Amino acid sequence: MKSRKHIAYLSSLMALWVISCVTLFPKSAKQMTEVPTIAVTEDATTVPVAGVDGQIAFVQDGMIYVINTDGTGKQSLTSGTSPAWSPDGTQIAYLADVDGDLEFDIYLMNADGTNQRPISLNHPEYDTPTDLNWQANGNMIVFAAYSGADKAEWDVEIFSMDVNTAIVRQITRNRPDDWSPAWSPDGNQIAYASSDFDASINDYKGSIYVMRADGNGASAFTSAGVDTGPAFSPDGKLIAFTSARLDGNGRGTGFKVFIMNADGSGERLLVDQQIASYSKLSWSSDGQWLAITGGTTKASAQIFLVRVDGTGLTLLTDGADPAWRP
Questions:
Q1: What's the CA gap between 232 and 283, in Å, rounded?
Q2: Number of neighbouring beta carbons within 10 Å of residue 164
Q3: DSSP, residue by residue, 70-105
Q4: What is the CATH number of the domain that holds 149?
Q5: What is the distance, to the nearest Å, from the Cα of residue 138 to the centroid of all Cα atoms in its chain?
Q6: Residues near 263 by Cβ (< 8 Å), separated by ≥ 6?
Q7: Which of 102, 182, 190, 224 has the most C-beta neighbours closer than 10 Å?
Q8: Is a pLDDT exceeding 70 seen at residue 253?
Q9: In this structure, is residue 58 part of a structural domain?
Q10: Is 95 part of any domain?
């Protein structure tokens, strides 16, 4: 039988847009202060917008959709979550609970939703995967999951899987929860979030780390609050992430969007508004735009586009978990 923590996590996985103040992982979430919903749309235009094109996969009400970045062509593909495009844009990896047993597995489908098939079912090395991210120059997917090595603790670690062979390797083995992994464009590094309980503030804190693809050489790039959702720019020069900076009492004040250089320097605020909960970020293929998720007064989660200079905030659609097609 699964623990309460495990069941709570599954619920949050299928409702990414529930407003809370940090991770999808309930061990952290149950300790965090709730963040109010902010009307991001007050400063946002609506599509279409000049200078951006492409297609985005996203999640809405437990279904995976694709939509053009001008707001047209919305199409339902399948039930599931955490879509991740293959490097050539012809396939989508995703998570699904096909048999209804509350056990999510990694699946593949064609870009039009056809040929849906599992990569691996009920794998013994991990449990309840999330945060899929496909290597930009290869066949490897990284994801976070509960480690099967010590299910008494339900420790969240980062894993990789070869989509062709389904061979799995556990990359991190740390006591803090490691999650939200993202490949660098050259496939040599992985950015991720790591969080642990801080007794001094009676709450969880998290930082963005970058490590080599084999799990060695991890370095903390941030330390100012609860940081999550790192995403490398297509040229590998920048990392975008979300952060709930700490107030004078050491509490998270709500997530905003930041950008820094890929070596951790030059951090700057991109979207100076609180957004809802964990916000997955996705870059356009030209590196000029980001897709983000924000909670608003009109909907519990909506997807916005924003230029990397912080201008052009544009409402695309209701939903969450955006993934820009390569």
A1: 8
A2: 10
A3: TS---EEEEE-EEEEE-TTSSEEEEEE-TTSSS--E
A4: 2.120.10.30
A5: 20
A6: none
A7: 190
A8: no
A9: no
A10: yes
Q: Is the dihedral of CA 121, 126, 129, 134 positive or negative?
A: negative
Residue 281 CA, chain-centre distance (Å), reads 6
Decide: residue 53, CB within 10 A, 0-12 exposed, 13-18 middle, 19+ buried. middle
Tokens found for residue 297:
């007064």
**pLDDT tens-digit profile of 15-43?**
332 323 333 333 332 222 233 333 444 55
Q: How far apart are CA 244 and CA 208, in angstroms?
A: 12
Tokens at 36, concatenated? 């109010």
Q: Which candidate, 103, 110, 109, 107, places its Cα nearest to that of 126?
A: 103
Angle at 262 between CA 258 and CA 268, to 5 degrees: 25
Predicted TM-score of the model (pTM): 0.84
Domain of 213? 4-36+81-279
Instruction: Pick left, alpha or beta for residue 285 (phi over 0 → left; psi -120 to 50 → alpha; otherwise beta).
Output: alpha
**What percent of the chain shows pLDDT beyond 90?**
54
Question: DSSP assignment of 187-224, as one string?
Answer: SSEEEEEEEEEETTTTEEEEEEEEEETTS-S-EE---S
Has residue 292 been placed in a domain? no
Residue 55 has a CB neighbour count (10 Å cut-off) of 18
pLDDT in tens, 175-206: 789 999 999 999 999 999 998 766 665 556 78
Residue 66 covered by a domain? no
